[in-house]
Amino acid sequence: MTRSLSTARVFLVFFEIVGWIAVAVGAFLLLWAFAQSSPQYLVAAVCLLLGGLVQVVFTQIARAQVETAENSALAVDLLRNIYSTLQRPASPLEHGTEGSRPMVGPATYRAPANRIPKNSAGHYVVGEQTFVNLAEAQQALKLSRRS
Question: What are the transmembrane regions (predicted)?
Answer without folding.
Answer: 12-35, 41-58
